[in-house]
Amino acid sequence: MTRxxxxxxxxxxxxxxxxLPEVLEPYLESLQILxxxxxLMLDLIKDEFERLRHEDLTPVQALLLFNLGNAEVSAxxxxxxxxxxxxxxxxxxxxxxxxxxxxxxxxxxxxxSVRVRLTPRGEEVREIIGQMFLRHAAGLxxxxxxxxxxxxxxxxxxxxxxxxxxxxxxxxx
Length: 173
What we know:
Layout: H1 3-7, H2 20-51, H3 59-68, E1 73-74, H4 75-81, H5 89-98, E2 102-106, E3 114-118, H6 120-143, H7 151-172
Antiparallel strand pairs: 1-3, 2-3
Helix pairs in contact: 2-3, 3-6
């Protein structure tokens, strides 16, 4: 018996093989949609910054600035907050510091830890992204796309999936 088989949570029953296609196909479609949505969001950010002739940032870096917000956090905290598909948060933070978008300072409590916060230049980028998201939310609301099912209900469902996935990772280790 493998280690994974021993640690598999017994509370997660595997459906019978006959039922699997009914469960598996919509699940796989959801995963593909989520991946495409994330990539489209990054493309939207890229287009917005190209339109504004603000081309020194990658979409991932701009998203990092948006998610940093008004807080002062560590790189690890920032990584756990956001969606940085295929990116190295530490590398991007180093670049953002070099470009003047982020200020960094060693933690007084733990000198190994670095705390980061936005500079005024970083706050400008955060505002650009925030305004873009606000326009998108207004357009989606006006179109009725988010009415059925209501977005809070959809988000609740995704938080449940997120919790399930996180639990699966904990059981592996």
